[in-house]
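Following up on my earlier message about iron/sulfur cluster. Here are the inputs again, as you asked, copied directly from the submission form:
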Amino acid sequence: MKAAILTDTTKCIGCNECAIACKKANHLAPDSPRRWDAEDGLSARNWTSVVEGPNHTYARQQCRHCLEPACVSVCPVGALSKTALGPVVYDQSRCMGCRYCMMACAYGIPRYDWDQAVPYVRKCILCYDRIRTGGQPACTEACPAKATIFGDRDELLAEAHRRIAAAPGQYVNQVWGEHDLGGTSVISISNVDLSFLAPEHPAGSAPLPQTTALAMHAVPFAFTGVVAGMAGLNWIINRRMKRQTEGSDE
Ligand code: SF4
Ligand code: SF4
Ligand code: SF4
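Thanks, got it. Here's what our run produced:
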């Protein structure tokens, strides 16, 4: 199985239950308002949001869990990884806070948690712990309208095309995420153009890592040493903070 989420905006009633369930399931604290907060409602403490688009259409914003994720390809320390099941997950103990992932993501998804003392990049993780033990994401489980559903990617793609074919006047003839930038595990169908969700998204279906990897290889060798130094420094700081928390002096 390749895990995926299909959201059908024609069914969404904008109740926000998906976003509320995500915060609860992931123990996300209330947001502290900041002047640079994004209009799409995502933050380090909001991993998904419901955005109102044209014609009062409600669309979910969240990590797309790209099949070939640019965020993974640029991370110098392997803090982000694409699992075989589908979710793109994050290992905070490896992160050194360079925020390359935030710059590389064409959907503008990862957010930095400025309230943490150590580097912390936050985003939807497709409820990896829940789905690998046979469950479903909290957001899809909570949706009272079945507007956002969980399943196998191939089966959800077939369902998306079936709905469009059954009511062609009701949908734009497109499955967002089927091919975009190599395809994604979070896909959507809609009665309106959903490009407002990703205004920086480049056109085309070529995966971004092909470009970002080339760019990363072009980084001067000397910078690699700087990155290694930063990673080492980060490890030392983390270790000291851990020891302080445990009450021992170094
Ligand atoms: S949407 Fe962005 S953060 Fe999510 S997997 Fe794709 S590149 Fe990574
Ligand atoms: S899949 Fe899980 S982490 Fe992602 S938006 Fe849904 S509830 Fe939140
Ligand atoms: S819970 Fe379902 S109906 Fe409510 S906002 Fe989320 S996707 Fe839309």
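One observation from looking it over: Residues 217-229, 231-245 have pLDDT under 50 and may be disordered. Hope that helps, and feel free to reply on this thread.
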